[in-house]
Amino acid sequence: MIFNSTFLFYSVHLATRHQNSQITNAKLQEACKRKYLSCIPPLNLVTSSKCRTHLSTTDSIISKQFQGQHGRAYLFETVVNVEEGPSEERHMTTGLHTVKDIHCSRCRSVLGWKYEKAYEQSQRYKEGKYILEKQLLTDVN
Q: What total of structural domains would you count in the chain?
């Protein structure tokens, strides 16, 4: 995947190897479901602060000018290893939106939300994008 024509890219792949034969079949299956980001050239990873599961890269941040329930939040183009909750309509500072809360697929903590629909024309750029709250994230070099 090429970002901003700078030829920075990352590939998303499933971890399918394990070296410890003590790992149970259920744990192995869970590990194989999670996606791990490998960055070429190395980019900063964004992970859950609770369990360190890979969520995105800093290159995927569209804007840092958002506000979440816990303070500063970032708008991301893509994220991985999250599960979406049910759709609901919310009145936000920029108008009415249909959103889904997103949870870490490993620790189940709420990380932010996904914009499904924006009712204001000027806000439609958010559709399909993700908000992750800074306080719930960790940057990894």
A: 1
